[in-house]
Every structure is written in structure tokens, then in C-alpha cells.
Design brief:
Blueprint (H helix, E strand, L loop, with lengths): L4 E10 L5 E11 L8 H4 L7 E5 L3 E7 L10 E2 L12 E2 L2 E2 L6 H4 L2 H4 L12 E6 L7 E2 L4 H8 L23 E6 L7
Antiparallel strand pairs: 1-2, 3-4, 4-5, 6-7, 8-9, 8-10
């Protein structure tokens, strides 16, 4: 059948016992297809470009006119997610996957936060912008020092105390020193 036209289909009628009671045909007529105009007729690309954007813990975007494939370079937002120690990957294998069940059961306690609740006066935070030749006090408050080990992620310390991407350098350093105080003596 071509564009539009009609065709005949058979019909069969059955009784309650499944016996054929009559046969026949029905004629079906289809309308002719009208011409599709504009961009929809060729469907080679969109009328205008579209931006596809990822937001949330992973960000990225791409612009496409639909005429070819596209990909999105992504960035994981700092502190947007956490990994359980049992899901950490070392090389091509899960660290837990290469350990026996008894040893892997100890991983949680091995990586637990032993520094939680440190007194602020036991913590010194310094930075360097000359590869570690000289060190400067970061100027962190007692509250910021406690947050560092309280797993609140409320305070960020930047390597070299850099304030923008343009001042980042391989010479930037961050040093955190924990000194024994009364609870460690």
C-alpha cells in the first residue's frame, strides 16, 4: 500500500462454543499523508541549539543542535558526597574485596575518627606558598580547629590558603600538627 488508499481485511464470527458462524471482509480506507514542511520534514537537527545541564553534586553542561552526538564534561562538587570505607577502590579492585571476611570486618574501626573531640589547643594549622621553606599560621579559630576533626565539614582549609584558582601553585602546602596535650600524656 502506498500513501493513503484502502485495503480489505477478513472477518470471522464465532459462537459460544468456538464454532465459526460467518465469514466476511471489511474495507478499511486510510487518508493520504499531507506534506510535512519546515524543520520537522527533514529532522536533521533542531531549529535552535539546546543546552543540556547537570546540577547538584555533579555539574556540567553541553550545547547541541541535535545534528550529532554530544558529551558532557562533569565536575563533582566538593563535599557533595561521601564514600563508605567498604566501597573504596585501590587500583582495579575494592579494598575489602581482596581481604578475607574477618580482616574486612575491622576496616570500619581502622578508619574511624580517632581525632574526634581533640581540644583546639592541640591543633596547629599552617600554610606555605614557597614549597614548605617557611610556614605561616593559618589563623584558624578554635571552632574551626574543632570542626576539622568533628566531621561536620563546616570549615574548609585550602592548601596554601589560596583564595582563587589563579593563585594555586605546586608550591602551596598545608600542614596540620597535632601536639600531645593533657589527654595524650
Amino acid at each position: 500500500m502506498t500513501n493513503g488508499g484502502s485495503f480489505t481485511v477478513p472477518t470471522i464470527t464465532y459462537d459460544i462454543n468456538g464454532h465459526i458462524t460467518s465469514t466476511g471482509t471489511n474495507k478499511l480506507t486510510l487518508p493520504s499523508i499531507t506534506t510535512i514542511t519546515g524543520n520537522a520534514g527533514s529532522a536533521t537537527k533542531f531549529n535552535s541549539t539546546r543546552k543540556i545541564e547537570l546540577t547538584g553534586g555533579v555539574t556540567g553542561s553541553a550545547t547541541t543542535d541535535g545534528s550529532s552526538g554530544w558529551s558532557i564534561a562533569t565536575t563533582v562538587t566538593d563535599y557533595s558526597h561521601m564514600h563508605h570505607p567498604n566501597n573504596l577502590i585501590c587500583g582495579n579492585s575494592y579494598t575489602v574485596g581482596s581481604l578475607d571476611p574477618l580482616t574486612s570486618a575491622y576496616i570500619g574501626s581502622a578508619v574511624s575518627n580517632k581525632t574526634f573531640g581533640l581540644p583546639a589547643n592541640a591543633i596547629t594549622i599552617e600554610y606555605s606558598t614557597d614549597g614548605g621553606s617557611t610556614w605561616t599560621n593559618y589563623g584558624a579559630t578554635d571552632s574551626q580547629k574543632r570542626d576539622l576533626f568533628a566531621e561536620t565539614r563546616a570549615t574548609n582549609f585550602v592548601i596554601g590558603k589560596s583564595t582563587s584558582a589563579s593563585t594555586n601553585s605546586t608550591n602551596n602546602r598545608l600542614r596540620i600538627t597535632i601536639e600531645p596535650k593533657d589527654r595524650y600524656v
